[in-house]
Design goal:
The structure holds two protein chains of two kinds.
Chain A (H helix, E strand, L loop, with lengths): L27 H4 L7 E4 L18 E7 L3 E10 L2 E10 L3 E3 L4 H20 L33 H5 L4
Antiparallel strand pairs in A: 1-2, 1-5, 2-3, 3-4
Chain B lengths: L9 H6 L5 H4 L5 H8 L11 E7 L4 E7 L6 E7 L15 H18 L31 E3 L10 H12 L13 E2 L4 E2 L1 H8 L2 H13 L1 H7 L1 H6 L5 H15 L24 H26 L1
Helix pairs in contact in B: 4-5, 4-10, 7-8
Classes of the chains: A alpha+beta, B alpha+beta.
Chain lengths: 164, 299
């Protein structure tokens, strides 16, 4: 029999619910709100059959471009041949999670704004750029004793004591 | 899972998936809850209010609740045990009391939102189906009935509370099929019968019947009514007065409670992480100093 390339082919494990997490899905998935421009992760919930994205999009992150009654439009990059296309799909909210990829940038921006405002109040110019970790500083080794190690001739009797 | 020698093996427990906590407690129907709470995504943070009615053996709870990720938020609540304040002291869990509780909640919510002048609702309680008409400035307050785990049969008290809220001025989508007095044969609500139930007419007729046939049972069953001096004919008047009193002043009274007494503790209090660490350090120090002394003695 031929292989079969249906929409849900090869998804036996991908779309399966995790161990001991079957049944009703917790209500926070329904209570979350999404706005256009948010980043979301796509993670298919095999228990809900409507509004499922294709298996390719499982694990991808994209931006929200549309919000409808029960679903969200997400824009995801897909490599097709020699170029990357921005694909727009609609996914039900059960298959979507808010992404934390932009969280670090958002927090850093708030912190930097605060630092800059404080510096401006003091009248100095600061750089809020992140610096990569440099080489470790030099240090003196304390309490070092010198131990000279020399090879000794092989002693058969001594070495067999353990396991003979 | 097949049991081995009528024992639940370790493997059984390893694979067992517990239901949600409130399902295990038998308190929440998640299938219904998902459908009640789900808000259209293109309505973003607009809250969806549920008109929650629950009955216990001696009380009725009516609440307006909205859901959030941190937990449900109760906007307003009305209990049957508040009805003595309005003149209703007996029969606090019957159909008429449910109507009063629903009415109280509706007037309370509308007063909170300052909509009570616009939406008077149905002041004269006839049993007919009444739906609020939208006024000029604001649309009516919309809530969805949440019955919980009740079986929704015709004439259930929860629909008495629903009728109370509707007559109070809330907009709750409903159908008259389950009100008391709906005839399945002609598919019509008999407004007269429903009105009788709203004013406790069914209780009054039972009182009259018992008084004639079984006076001893009447004495035992309606003892509280007799104590308060309420007869079968006074019942309707009483409920009319209660409705008027509710409409006059629906706001709740804050009761002052003294702080609870300190009780003697019968079991040991659990130590915090820091306290346990501190105890360990003490023990080690004591051991070290004792060992130090022993070594000195040995030497």
């Amino acid at each position: 029999m031929p292989a079969g390339h249906g929409v849900r082919s090869r998804t036996r494990d991908l779309f399966a619910r995790p161990f001991r997490k079957k049944g009703y899905i917790p209500l926070t998935t329904y209570l979350r709100t999404y706005k256009v421009g948010d980043y979301v992760d796509i993670k298919v919930n095999g228990a809900v059959h409507k509004g499922m994205p294709h298996k390719f999009y499982h694990g991808r992150t994209g931006k929200v471009w549309n919000v409808t009654k029960r679903a969200i439009g997400v824009e995801i990059n897909k490599q097709v041949g020699n170029r990357i296309i921005r694909k727009r799909i609609h996914v039900r909210v059960e298959h979507v999670q808010p992404s934390r990829c932009a969280e670090e940038i958002r927090l850093r921006r708030i912190k930097n704004d605060k630092l800059k405002a404080e510096a401006k109040a003091r009248g100095e110019v600061i750089s809020t750029k992140r610096q990569p970790e440099g080489p470790k500083p030099g240090f003196m080794v304390e309490g070092a004793t010198l131990e000279t190690v020399t090879p000794i001739p092989y002693d058969v009797v001594n070495d067999l004591k353990g396991g003979y | 899972m097949a049991f081995v020698k009528a024992q639940k093996s370790k493997a059984y427990f390893k694979r067992f998936q517990v239901k949600f906590k409130r399902r295990r407690a038998g308190k929440t129907d998640y299938r219904a809850r998902i459908r009640l709470i789900n808000q259209d995504k293109n309505k973003y943070n607009t809250p969806k209010y549920r008109f929650v009615v629950r009955f216990t053996n001696k009380d009725i709870t009516a609440q307006i609740v909205s859901a959030s990720i941190a937990g449900d938020i109760v906007m307003a609540a009305a209990y049957a045990h508040e009805l003595p304040r309005y003149g209703l002291e007996v029969g606090l869990t019957n159909y008429a009391a449910a109507y009063c509780t629903g009415l109280l909640l509706a007037r309370r919510v509308l007063k909170m939102l300052e909509m009570d002048e616009e939406y008077q609702g149905n002041v004269e309680a006839t049993g007919e189906d009444f739906s609020v008409e939208p006024a000029e400035s604001r649309r009516p307050f919309r809530a969805l009935l949440d019955v919980g785990l009740l079986r929704t049969t015709t004439g259930n008290r929860v629909f008495g509370a629903l009728k109370g809220a509707l007559d109070g001025g809330l907009d709750i989508p409903h159908s008259e099929k389950r009100f008391a007095g709906f005839k399945k044969d002609d598919k019509q609500l008999d407004a007269e019968v429903h009105r009788k139930y709203i004013f406790g007419g069914h209780v009054a007729s039972y009182m009259r019947a018992l008084l004639e046939d079984e006076p001893e049972k009447y004495q035992s069953h309606f003892s509280e009514y007799i104590k308060k001096g309420i007869e079968a004919d006074d019942v309707e008047e009483m409920y009319k007065k209660v409705h008027a009193a509710i409409r006059a002043d629906p706001m709740p009274v804050k009761s002052t409670k003294e702080p609870p007494k300190e009780h003697k503790r019968y079991n040991l209090k659990k130590l915090t992480y820091e306290e346990r660490k501190a105890k360990l350090v003490e023990r080690l120090n004591a051991l070290n100093s004792a060992a130090g002394d022993d070594e000195e003695d040995d030497d």
